[in-house]
Amino acid sequence: MAIDSSADIEAQIAQWLGYIAKRRELTPADADELEDHLRSRIADLTEAGLSPDEAFLIAVKRMGSLDALSREFAREHSERLWKQLVLTGGPDETTAAASRLDLMVMIACAALAAIAIKIPAIFGFDLADDATFYARNFSLFALVPLAAYFAWCRRLRPAVIGLLAALFAVGAVGANAYPLGDQSQSTVLTAIHLPLALWLVVGVAYVGGQWRSDRRRMDFIRFTGEWFIYFVLIALGGGVLTAFTFATFTAIGVNPETFVSSWLLPCGAMAAVVVAAWLVEAKKAVIENMAPVLTRVFTPLFAAALLAFAVSIVVTGNAIDIDRDVLIRFNLLLVVVLGLLLYGISARDPDAKPGLFDKLQLALVLAALVIDALVLVALANRITEFGFTANKTAALGENVILLTNLAWSAYLLFAILRARTPFSRLERWQTGYLTVYAAWAWTVVLAFPVIFEFA
């Protein structure tokens, strides 16, 4: 007997299929198989005498006991009857046990990160007196436990774990083997570039060793944006906790400054790196709705700010005054622009037609290109006048890398708007370019100190 084909039931099935189609882990073949199961269950239930509406709801409930997709769908469409039918009973015992085990592993890795930041104190290193040592090594303290957490979650093969261990060992050598002084430019460059290099090593763990997959690299880009949001939220909460700690202990005549500066802040920051990653994994459906919204809010704002800055330079005729702090600020600005572009790409439906937001992204990229070109001109003039240094060479390389990325991204966005190329080309370009960033970061950490004689 064929299932009831009324408009209401077909609309409900279409809504359910539209939801599962958004899940990145499902292929079209998976979605077709799930639809067949759903329709088969509805047919069986209607033959048993249930109304089509009742058959649909109960069929989805029964599929939910077999697959978490129905449970997530019910959370997103939280009408009372739907939740009563689908969310009753909670997860099965096997899923709950696995979640508890993952939580325990996360707590262990977070505790390891918190302890790691204090281990150097055993050997006489002080956070205040040896700030450069901690600046060079803080990414090791935080990211090794994070990689270990993902190694557990992804059940990595021994060969991949060995590769990760080797890369972290190379990072430790680059941070500590060279005779770098506190005022050395290479010290600052290592403190800036080693976290980026090691974050991409964490990416290898996150994707389960499948770094060659464009889709998995894009998953890591999504994770990075989501992790950053959660980390900022944890940091804001930590700021409130710190304020209350000072207020309450000061009220009884106890000064908590030493505890806060030596224990609460450093240990909390290291642990938060792992906790934020766990929250992304555990609450992915919530944060995925937040990040695209933030991207859409700030893309036009940043585009307007950059265009206003470019116009101001033309109107005033003032050149950019290049020094180390200015270079860092401009590079951070370009990184933010790139982040907005990346997250806009990661949240976009590849099959959607070009729209207003694509035009805004093109405007943002073009404005960033103008700024990058102006910085490069000012930097080239500075190098011509005073010669190469580690800082200026690193800034030159980074601006050239960003200029190349932004220029080709602008070309692809323009082609997408003209319907001359598929959106997937821009996605592949950005995910493939992660390897370029990794290569440059490792070059700065390992080669620059030697090239510039540890200056």
Helix-strand blueprint:
Layout: H1 7-21, H2 28-47, H3 52-66, H4 68-76, H5 80-86, H6 93-116, H7 119-122, H8 131-153, H9 158-176, H10 185-206, H11 214-251, H12 257-282, H13 284-316, H14 324-347, H15 356-386, H16 390-417, H17 423-446, H18 448-451
Globally, the shape reads globular
Helix proportion range:
over 70%
* Rg over alpha carbons: 26 Å
Low-pLDDT runs of 5+ residues are 74-90
Number of strands: 0
N- to C-terminal distance: 81 Å
What value does the average pLDDT take?
Answer: 82
Strand content: under 5%
- Number of structurally distinct domains: 3
- The quaternary state of the protein chains shown equals single chain
Structural class: mainly alpha
- Tally the helices: what do you get? 18
Helix/strand order, N-terminal first: HHHHHHHHHHHHHHHHHH
Biggest sheet details: none
What attributes does this structure have?
455 residues; mainly alpha; 3 domains; 18 helices; globular
Structural description of this entry:
- This protein has 455 residues and is mainly alpha-helical.
- The chain has three domains: 7-86, no CATH class; 93-281, no CATH class; 285-421, no CATH class.
- The protein has 18 helices and no strands.
- It has helices spanning 7-21, 28-47, 52-66, 68-76, 80-86, 93-116, 119-122, 131-153, 158-176, 185-206, 214-251, 257-282, 284-316, 324-347, 356-386, 390-417, 423-446, 448-451.
- Helix 2 crosses helix 3 and helix 8 (131-153) runs antiparallel to helix 9 (158-176).
Structure summary:
With 455 residues, this protein is an all-alpha fold. The protein folds into three domains: 7-86, no CATH class; 93-281, no CATH class; 285-421, no CATH class. It contains 18 helices and no strands.
